[in-house]
């Protein structure tokens, strides 16, 4: 089983050996909360166990599967706050996937810290290199340990019966006992490691895939190379290089050497292929960077964050540099910095006029400088909301120049006034400032800007937006609009291609606006423009950048649906990255393509200044060709429990949602299956007509049906329709946080045809 393999993995690795012995380290939560804990790697080489030194205290564990990265030194706010007390070489931070808080630790010595840092990184690397089969073995092993209550390495029938309920299986007791007896080869009345794996395989027999296998197998035992070619051509609808592809599949996925020599694939190999990345619904062709990155910046959708510094809500939430690190590590390319005057001449970042905590502007710039290009080399835009005095604006400019150095774009790329925005390719490795600017690029080139001129107040003053959206208090609105703000030349000069301007009308913009000017709208203002002049909005966004952000009354940091803004061609659609839910699922879905680089090329009809695409009337497009998407939802595998009660078992249903232009918005559901989250079988077919497939996202949602209250969320997966593979495909489900729930999946059949 998995533990035997992990034993082989740790032999000769001193760091892992040391972790198995365990060590005492300080767990740090703040300057005042520093407690000693005993940390130890479990024998499965997957679980870290820790407890208080005091006897009788409960212990805690976490799985290395949940760890994203280990940061070395003072690389979190908590560890920076105690930097004067503990040296950097004894400190490290364990960062978890999703939105879970970090674990900050201080080892007794630099050597011990290195041992844990290197050891944990090795375990993360092992996990990343694991195949689907190994991950499944690991998962089976984890369940075995959970169910083996007396830790004797064997499981009697009662333990197995309890385990089935834990695993979401409601199986007839007689049938379960019959399978148990068949698996108990040693006839001891208990299952040991290999016997349990056999039992697991019996209960997870994939009848749905076996049926397909037998349909294409010439002899019912194996798939010849010719059988595989037929399957790829007829079901997966592949039409290029089918013969070499069939050979590759046998080479990579067939576990039997005998079958390989016969140029054939057994059922196990077929199962492994369909469960792999190649057999997934997301096309491997869309995983890397495959789009043209040399078009003007305004021709791309750009992954963007709102109130990036907030970890929670907008009234009392914690402000944190961690918000920037997490957003940038998710491929975000536009982050927001809300700047105010701070003590000792140092500008601070927080949500003004609220009880949110405050962080230093220079710490934010440090974090952005360090993490901007770890995930993507394409440009990052710092969207500055400036409430600072001229003196502190000068300090901001100094920090930006000093900390970011050459990464900060401070002048035009070729030194002369261009006709349009540069491309992501040309701006690789650069950080751009989006903020107010005195004058334009032309004046900057001519050197006609004075030392300190008066500019308008930030358009994004949230007080003004709350008033406009909700309260309509005319006097406050007038007062906000009349106030002026002085801008320092130093900060103004740092703004090159993203000058924040007030939007008047599309007509005014068409005549007067410059390509480097960026207007910002709240979601409600953007919706109004979309409703009144959708085609104009799309046309405007073919020439220059637009930012849309949530209205001020979303104090809970909830998100709007970004799709309607993408339908208008808005590039910088800023969402609260800290808030899980449909909005972030769609954002993650759109930007999961093109190497997750944070830039997705808009469809051609949204980039052409001569086109007049209207998202409300897609059928008027010159090259209009609607399609029919047919999805047969066949089965589900190992869905997670959502109710912690031991005897509760999921009643799953699948909802397929289409997010796109208004005509395409649709959702359909399968029926629910009672008491089976382990291997539910639906075989339900859902059909959708899609008028603008280039803009459509498809979201698969699994819910636990409840006839008396709202269904519980089980898992989801969202992807662009353009990245969907046809044929028989697995969908690997994600949690509410956007992290993989291994090995939970759906099995579907996809067809995309032109509407006749």
Automatic annotation (TrEMBL):
InterPro entries: C2_dom, C2_domain_sf, EF-hand-dom_pair, EF_Hand_1_Ca_BS, EF_hand_dom, PH-like_dom_sf, PH_domain, PI-PLC_fam. Its EC number is 3.1.4.11. It is a peripheral membrane protein. It is an enzyme of class 3 (hydrolase). Residues 17-125 form the PH domain. One of its GO terms (molecular function) is calcium ion binding. Residues 609-735 form the C2 domain. Residues 135-170, 171-206 form the EF-hand domain. Its cofactor is Ca(2+). Gene3D superfamilies: C2 domain (2.60.40.150), EF-hand (1.10.238.10), Phosphatidylinositol (PI) phosphodiesterase (3.20.20.190), Pleckstrin-homology domain (PH domain)/Phosphotyrosine-binding domain (PTB) (2.30.29.30). The keyword Calcium applies. Keywords: Calcium, Cytoplasm, Endoplasmic reticulum, Hydrolase, Lipid degradation, Lipid metabolism, Membrane, Metal-binding, Nucleus, Repeat, Transducer. This is Phosphoinositide phospholipase C. It comes from Poecilia reticulata (Guppy).
